[in-house]
Amino acid sequence: MTQEYNLIVVGGGPAGSTAATAVALRGHRVLLLERETFPRYQIGESLLPATVHGLCRILGVADEVQQAGFTLKRGGTLRWGRDPEPWQFSFAMTPRVPEPTATAFQVERSRFDEILLRGARRAGAEVREGSTVRRVVADEERVRGVEFTDADGNTRAVYARYVIDASGNTSRIHTGVGGGRVYSDFFRNLAVFGYFAGGARLPEPNSGNIFCAAFDAGWLWYIPLRDDLTSVGAVISPEHTGAVQRDARGAWRDMIAACPEVSRLVAGVPEATEAPYDQVRVRRDWSYWKQSFWKPGMALVGDAACFVDPVLSSGVHLATYGALLAARSVNAALDGSVPEEQGFAEFEARYRREYRVFYEFLIAFYDMERNEDSYFWSAKKITKVDLGEAAAFAELAGGLVSRDSAVVRTDWHTAAAQLDGAVGELAVSDDRMNPLLSAPVVSETFRTGNDLQEQALYGGPLDDPGPPSPGGLAVTPDGLSWAKE
Questions:
Q1: Rounded to 5 degrees, what are φ and ψ at 149?
Q2: Is this model's pTM higher than 0.70 or not?
Q3: Topology, domain 185-286
Q4: pLDDT tens-digit profile of 423-478?
Q5: Where in 346-447 does DSSP place strands (E)?
Q6: Is the preceding omega at residue 100 within 30 degrees of 0, hence cis?
């Protein structure tokens, strides 16, 4: 069999486009196979600053995303925990993510994903839409390629040194790496979601915030996508499955009515009637992870690899983070700078560590009766670091406890100095804030947050990161590959 490509990517969502672009930018031959024809609908509409200002810059699409007219997101507003009143957080609370990078976007995924897919084409990847992958082609040594049906109905096999499965939670080929999916015993929920043709907005400057509100059956998200479009979804416990199966739209409306904070925002607002936002959709919201993320010749990223409860808007972040890690491993193996096994072991270790931090913190976050001391204690238990509880919380809340050296890029560092008092000012402002924000440790938490966020997304700062642990790998200056220390 002849290797026509260096890499085949299955799936054209954010994870697939990220992997394809990152490998194509190094001059390698990449084929991306996408089942649908873009633009297409997808859920997961709330992004994080690291994606908007970090990953999109690496992929060469930052300007296009900035100019797309997406709703600006400065943070989040929550009605969560013991306190009955909503509280908020702002990305500007950390001087490590200063203005103008202290923002993200609420996006229509059909448009955002198409921007990333176009970026993959510009980078040199061959993109074939309407192509459904049926199975992987493998021998006793490694995965060699895939078999797919193209847009004309023709079935063929295509070969490459590597295959990355980024085809989502419905992946047909994730078993190609061996092992099964391990489902969480804790996060086994159901999501039912739809759209309104508008809705009230939070007061400025937080009108673009995601609003999450807990209620008896679970919690609701409220995401302003446009002036005339709002995404509203309920994540509910499994005992409500029967009601959703009988009448998904009716159950969705009942959940909204049961949450006064969200119900008030859509009072008198009609449901959306424009396709694809005219449907009420249901998704099983079970958190899971694969027993293995790779085997020789193949790696899993995005929801093909793992999924965690979406309350912290981590979906696109985790997907693109994992895809970038996998792309680094492919690039390092193709150019011979790092052995395949070492590079992909680094990919899996970093990816699992990031997933674990989100997962274990969310277990604590779901306990609505906890106070700040309890959260700090949970941070120490989860991170297992030789530090006090408050310091452990500071590391955890930043996104990743990795021991990488953290050197902020100089352009962010200069801007950061201008916001040194941001946390203290927010803690005493007139806006309703979480009382945790007045605690001194929280100031340090958010000041260290971007170091750890860069580690989470890129394995370390893009300039000159160190390894995450003794014997680990560093990242090349362009962020696209691994380098030995």
A1: -110, 125
A2: yes
A3: D-Amino Acid Oxidase; Chain A, domain 2 (3.30.9)
A4: 444 444 445 544 444 444 444 444 444 444 444 343 444 443 444 554 589 989 88
A5: none
A6: yes
